[in-house]
Amino acid sequence: MTSQEIRQKFLDYFKSKGHLIVPSAPIVLKDDPTLMFSNSGMTQFKDFFLGYKTPTAPRIADTQKCLRVSGKHNDLDDVGRDTYHHTMFEMLGNWSFGDYFKKEAIAFAWELLTEVYGIPKENLYVTIFEGDASENLDRDQDAYDFWKSHISEDRIINGNKKDNFWEMGESGPCGPCSEIHVDLRTPEEKAKVSGLELVNNDHPQVVEVWNLVFMEFNRKADKSLEKLPAQHVDTGMGFERLCMALQGKSSNYDTDVFTPLIAKVEELSGKKYTGILEDEKDIAIRVVVDHIRAVSFAIADGQLPSNGGAGYVIRRILRRGISYSYRFLDMKEPFLYKLVAVLQEQMGAFFPELEKQGKLVAEVIKSEEDSFLKTIENGLIRVEKLIQQTIGNNQKVLPSEEVFELYDTYGFPDDLTRIIAEEKGLTIDEAGFKAEMEKQKLRSKADSAQKVYDWVTLESKPETFVGYDQTESETYITRYRKVENKDGEFYQVVLSSSPFYPEGGGQVGDKGVLENAVESFEVLETKKENGLIISLINGLPKDAGAVFYAKVNASERKNSQANHSVTHLLHEALREVLGTHVEQKGSYVGPDYLRFDFSHFNKMTEEELALIEEKVNKKIKESIALQEFRNIPIQEALEKGAMALFGEKYGDSVRMIQFGSSKELCGGTHVKNTSEIGHFKITSEGSAAAGIRRIEAISGDKSEEYFHNLEKQIIELSQLLKSKDVVRSIEKLIEENTSLKAEVDALKKEKAKGEIGEWKNAYEQKGNKQLLVKKTSLDAGSVKDIVFQLKKEIPASVTIILSDADGKPMITVGVSDDLAADYQAGAIVKDLAKEIQGGGGGNPGFATAGGKNLEGLENAYQKALTL
Question: Which keywords does UniProt give here (predicted)?
């Protein structure tokens, strides 16, 4: 049975049991402050469990792309070193939202595994929650009783809270769970040791394949448990492990989920995969084929590698794969990007985003490979220098601060530093390095540390967003909670009627005030969490249950929505000018400017940029009225021609924004007419990543301000130049400057000729060399020319020139070729540079150094005379 058939059988089975089959949500989360990535199948359904949203169906099934590389669920360090841990994996799941519960979930799981998939019953074990007295949680007797009708009691195992009470994070939906484990060992191995003894003991062939979670509770911030409004079922079956069991393999990597990728790595690297756990080459291949999946799906879902947040995690995973391939597969050139085509062929039919975005994914990965391989090459030079310094100081241990700097500042893998050091008979200060890592973690935690308390509920009124129609509204606080961070104590509030737009879709959240006749509070930001619009205020009202008036900062909202509307016009214009391959890949919409990232593989020309501006401004001048379809079925919106963005999760009903021929699915705020935008001006265009261009632009008030400043500058220039024809005056100045520069260069050459004639006669014989030490005010270029000429013409010579040109100290050293065995220009200049608080370098025949201490030139001069 192929992996594609295994996946399809799962979905077909649950469809036959009345489940709605839904597509996987994006692997990258954009509206959940508690998670960067989907780390389980239930992530996209969290609002249903908490009662914030109504599910589209009481029974749902899917396969969800998941990523576990940070936080509580972090499998990164295990990847490659065993047969079953992964960063990215598929989670097959069936869900019941207040419908069936334990009995049916257990029956479905048993029937599918034993009758549909045909796994021998004697190979299966199940666990149930044994209870926990500290939480007043009883043993899950119901699950035990239901399992008894399917499996012998001696195969039902009690499990502790760690294994059999599932929680998705520090807070949120949770409940007891029942795991199903499969024993894949040979009959001989089973005869020696019972599978009962190996369940949950990290045995590679006795593995958990499915987890049935019975969602009953919500874990609050104070760690207490409260009952959910309804009981739910949340199951997750590891697709890769299921394939291992059904294909008779002892490793996930031996299934057809991974073998095509492994075969391609073998072809590209010339290395043969043997499947040995301890073999570093095989570990590297497993790391590469796992990581390429995680990175490819993340990029396809819209998350580009970067230096912060989710983008940093993706970059870290990719760099881990590059590092392993560099060290153990001898791959010194980019090659991971060539695996994307194989992944597309394997999974593109089921995950269309991979098929659609394949070219972009490959380009981004190749660019990252190029960049990181250069980092490694530069790092090797730094490591070698550090090793030589350590040896020169008669030490055997590389200092932790320098090793950490290589890792943290330059991105050089610490384990590669370790390997190179060991080859030279050295070690690194492991304890010191770990201490530096811990300091960094503490700094990072301190910067992002935030304590969030539980909600205090005041009103049971409906909570609605009125910001599309109003910027002010009478309202109540329905709930609030305290938040503490490095900036102090604040309160998050949910309003019965909120005009504040929550950050999302690239648009910043609204700011404003919440006030009544008694008190007033500043609204510092507005975000969305689990379906709730949450505004942050700078204090707690004395009477939180009083009537308040919510007011959005009108000028900021006006400018933000002008910038948002213009991004739609910009998107359409880009597709018209550059082609329909252009797709939005990210945006920022604030009151001051907008940023728009889009797929395109070439730098835009000035003509293209001018045409884009012209097209957008034409639409602005046409005064096109907004057509808003606030609650339209998604299929109808798509049939009308609305643009849907990859990496976004849309519901059955959506909001469509239309300005003439521009139609997009969008939840942001917009102008009522394009004339409100005023004017559009592109301020920059550049590369955001491989295959991704970035435009920054302004509109509205900021555009008006931009042209006002330009006009002011032209007036000031006109006054300085004493001419209204500014362009002609500047052209004349440039011509005069060019002529004067030519005269200065000629004078410098004449002066240099004079210096050469004088300096040739100033060498003194010192030992086996002729030494010249001179001070000058000549510029660096002239000094370099002279030194090169002198070291060629004067045999057995060392030339040292100390310059104070432009008030900056510079030391230049030249050594004639016949003295190369005795004197090194680089070593001489390095020693002299200490006197001017500087540094530099070069080759054995020529070197330079600049510095900060001009007065130190005299000490350097006296020191040079003693050479």
Answer: Aminoacyl-tRNA synthetase, ATP-binding, Cytoplasm, Ligase, Metal-binding, Nucleotide-binding, Protein biosynthesis, RNA-binding, tRNA-binding, Zinc
The Cα diameter of the chain in Å comes to: 107
Angle between helices 358-392 and 414-423 (to 10 degrees): 40
Task: State the Cα–Cα distance between residues 697 and 677, nearest whole angstrom.
Answer: 12
Residue 70 has pLDDT above 60, yes or no: no
What Cα–Cα distance (Å) separates residue 439 from each residue in 362, 401, 434, 444, 590?
A: 36, 12, 9, 9, 35
Report yes or no on whether pTM surpasses 0.85: no
Instruction: Provide CB contacts within 8 A for 106, sequence distance 6+.
Output: 143, 146, 147, 150, 178, 212
How many CB atoms within 10 Å of residue 227?
9
Helix (H) or strand (E) holding 572: helix 554-578
d(CA 242, CA 7): 10
Contacts of 294 (CB under 8 A, 6+ apart): 67, 69, 86, 87, 88, 314, 317
Distance CA(462)–CA(464), nearest Å, equals 6
Give the number of other Cβ atoms within 10 Å of residue 369's Cβ. 23
Q: What does pLDDT average to over the chain?
A: 90
Calpha distance 679→617 (Å, rounded)? 6
Q: What is the pLDDT of residue 822?
A: 87
d(CA 770, CA 586): 65
Q: Is 666 annotated as a binding residue?
A: yes
Mean pLDDT of 94-120: 96
Phi, psi (5° rounding) for residue 411? 70, 20
pLDDT in tens, 773-829: 999 988 888 889 889 989 888 999 999 999 998 889 999 999 999 998 889 898 899
Would the CA dihedral through 452, 458, 461, 464 be positive or negative? negative
Structure tokens at 808: 């900056």
> Would you state the structure tokens that stand for residue 381, as one six-digit string?
């030079």
Residue 445 predicted with pLDDT over 70: no
Tens digits of per-residue pLDDT, 18-50?
Answer: 999 999 888 887 766 667 787 777 878 877 877
DSSP annotation of 626: P
- d(CA 275, CA 267) in angstroms, rounded, equals 16
For residue 458, what is the DSSP state?
Answer: -
- Quote the CA–CA distance of 485 and 496 in Å, as a whole number: 26
Report the run of H or E that residue 214 belongs to, with start and end.
strand 206-219
Cβ atoms of 91 and 334 within 8 Å: the answer is no
Read off the pLDDT band of 378 (50, 70, 90): confident
Has 243 been labeled as part of a binding site? Answer: no
Secondary structure E strands in 614-759:
627-633, 653-659, 662-665, 680-689, 692-699
> What per-residue confidence (pLDDT) applies to 534?
95
Between vectors from CA 828 to CA 822 and to CA 833, what angle results, nearest 5°? 175
pLDDT at 222: 86
Q: What pLDDT, on the 0 to 100 scale, is given for residue 34?
A: 65
Flag whether pLDDT at 75 surpasses 70.
no
* pLDDT greater at residue 720 or residue 294: 294
Do 690 and 684 contact (CB within 8 A), yes or no? Answer: no
* pLDDT band with cut points at 50, 70 and 90 for residue 332: very high
Q: Annotation-wise, does 564 bind a ligand?
A: yes
Predicted pLDDT of residue 720 = 86
DSSP 477-541: EEEEEEEEETTEEEEEEEESEE-PPPSBTTBPPP-EEEE-SS-EEEEEEEEEETTEEEEEESS--
* Nearest 10 degrees: Cα torsion 8, 13, 14, 19: 90
pLDDT at res. 100: 96
Query: 605: how many CB neighbours lie within 10 A of its CB?
Result: 10
- The residue behind tokens 């089959």 is 21
State the Cα–Cα distance between residues 17 and 57, nearest whole angstrom.
Answer: 13
Rounded CA separation 831/847 (Å): 12
The answer to the question of whether 568 is labelled as a binding residue is: yes
